[in-house]
Design brief:
The protein is mainly α. Helix content is about 80%, strand content about 0%. It has six helices and no strands. It starts with 5 loop residues before the first helix and ends with a helix.
Length: about 180
């Protein structure tokens, strides 16, 4: 493994800029820009080692949830649209390796992009289905629970200590309220 890791390298750059440069930049737009960049670098440092694991968990959760929904609907006599079935059967292989290696991370991102595109097809299909057959609304609930788990993982990976448990719960409630309205 490369030392320092990318997260450590970004952290060292951020600390150096904060300690040696920030105080030398006059107040104004340039200092605000530097502070914003430092905040972004701090987030990258905190999250770098967690993003790969977050993608692994998201990919597995999305895949399992969608397969469960499609299988349950199939047992009720509702077949998923062909593009959904095809996309579920053609999920790219995420490979194996260290989630911080560039190749493996790129592979995880490729799988995640495929699954996110699939969600963009499944979500409106399930919403239409629930309008036609209200008894299938439980599958929208399953999708909402998936979305909440995904948001929780992302906040955990990227926000670090910026969010308390109460703030995370509030964000999750707000997201759930918005999803219900949509």
């Amino acid at each position: 493994m490369l030392k320092p890791t990318l997260g450590e390298l970004v952290g060292n750059i951020s600390r150096s800029l904060r300690e040696d440069v920030l105080g030398e930049v006059p107040q104004g737009a340039a200092q605000r820009q530097l502070k914003a960049a430092l905040h972004a670098l701090d987030r990258v440092e905190r999250s770098w080692g967690q993003l790969g694991q977050m993608l692994i968990e998201d990919n597995r959760d999305i895949t399992a949830t969608l397969r469960d929904i499609v299988a349950a609907l199939e047992t009720e006599g509702t077949r998923a649209p062909e593009p959904v079935l095809s996309a579920l059967n053609d999920i790219p292989d995420e490979g194996s390796g260290n989630s911080q290696s560039d190749d493996f991370f790129a592979s995880l991102m490729n799988v995640n992009e495929h699954l996110q595109a699939l969600l963009l097809v499944v979500d409106p299909w399930l919403r239409d289905l629930a309008r036609q057959r209200p008894e299938t609304g439980q599958y929208l609930d399953d999708l909402s629970h998936l979305y909440r788990r995904m948001v929780a993982r992302e906040l955990t990976a990227t926000a670090g200590d910026e969010f308390t448990a109460e703030e995370l719960a509030r964000v999750m409630r707000d997201a759930q309220t918005r999803m219900r309205r949509d």
